[in-house]
Amino acid sequence: MTAKIIDGKQVAADMRAELKDKVAELKTQGVVPGLAVILVGDDPASKSYVTAKEKACEEIGIYSDDNRLPDDTSEEDLLALVEKCNNDPKINGILVQLPLPKHIDEDKVLLAIDPAKDVDGFHPVNVGKMVVGQDAFLPCTPHGVIQLLLRNDVPLEGAEVVVVGRSNIVGKPVANMLIQKAATGNATVTVCHTRTKNMAEHVKRADIIIAAAGWPNTVTADMVKDGAVVIDVGVNRVEDATKKRGYRLVGDVDFEAVKEKASLITPVPGGVGPMTITMLLYNTVLSAEKAMAK
Q1: How far apart are alpha carbons 170 and 252 in whole angstroms?
Q2: Nearest-CA neighbor of 88 among 40, 34, 13, 24?
Q3: Would you give per-residue pLDDT tens digits along the chain (294 residues)?
Q4: Strand pairing of 264-265 and 229-232?
Q5: Start and end residues for every CATH 3.40.50.10860 domain found in the chain
Q6: Cα–Cα distances in Å, from 78 out to 35, 83, 96, 187, 284?
Q7: Which CATH number fits domain 30-115: 3.90.1150.150, 3.40.1190.10, 3.40.1190.20, 3.40.50.10860?
């Protein structure tokens, strides 16, 4: 058996086409969804990511409010900008790019964002609503994982799922989403982490494996049962002298070996990655729809 590759780029493109139609419909009603993007400093990775988000907004017709601030911006000034965006009716979503400079308290800034505009899904109000199963903005990468599963007809109800990793960004939220009594959940979920004993025994039971540990080759072929679905969230740089950059990107899964046992598998890059920005756009459009309905 060789696994079918889950094409995250194609799923993301399909979703963006759907969102573009929704934005066009909103515009006929006088509503233009708006996303405020705030970047402090000149970290190259953050700048690249923010630029990609802005291009994605333009692609589907979302208004993008670009705020690029110097590295020495004070916490007070940043909080004032967040409050300005909170009060701006043209802005439906606020994204503060992390990490922030060390002199700024990230938690304080994230708490300052209006939960109704928290399109990253990081505010404790939205996290709490997600956990108890109430309507909330779902965090983008975990929600992207769920969409990849649903749009590739992977049954979730009753499925044995193992999540490898317990971060607040991926591991914990995706586990919470999968156990909800909903069409996007109803799975039986085990969360493994650095203190898990006999991790391979847990992973080998899984119908669906979600690897989000942040370390190459965390999931190897001997840990995967035949026919399992494998979602690799990890993005790691490994040295590679054959590459012009001197490195290549790999996930948390031993892809070449595991794809010979899995039924479906995501590549790195090109799997989960394209979904993250797409789900940010999704949340921004959703926020605009909610604001219009008030």
Answers
A1: 13
A2: 34
A3: 799 999 999 999 999 999 999 999 999 999 999 999 999 998 888 888 888 999 999 999 999 999 999 999 999 999 999 999 999 999 999 999 999 999 999 999 999 999 999 999 999 999 999 999 999 999 999 999 999 999 999 999 999 999 999 999 999 999 999 999 999 999 999 999 999 999 999 999 999 999 999 999 999 999 999 999 999 999 988 888 888 888 888 999 999 999 999 999 999 999 999 999 999 999 999 999 999 887
A4: parallel
A5: 30-115
A6: 16, 9, 10, 41, 21
A7: 3.40.50.10860
Residues with Cβ < 8 Å from 124, sequence gap 6 or more?
111
Residue ranges, comma separated, of all CATH 3.40.50.720 domains in the chain are 140-274
Q: Which residues contact 84 (CB under 8 A, 6 or more apart)?
A: none
Closest residue by Cα to residue 284 from 174, 149, 138, 146: 138
What are 164's strand-pairing partners? 192, 211
Report phi then psi at 67, rounded to 5. -125, 105
Residues with catalytic roles: 53, 97, 120
Give dist(CA 91, CA 58) in Å, integer.
15
Nearest to 84 by CA among 98, 72, 94: 94
The H-or-E segment that residue 258 falls in is helix 255-258
Instruction: Place domain 140-274 in its CATH homologous superfamily.
Output: NAD(P)-binding Rossmann-like Domain (3.40.50.720)
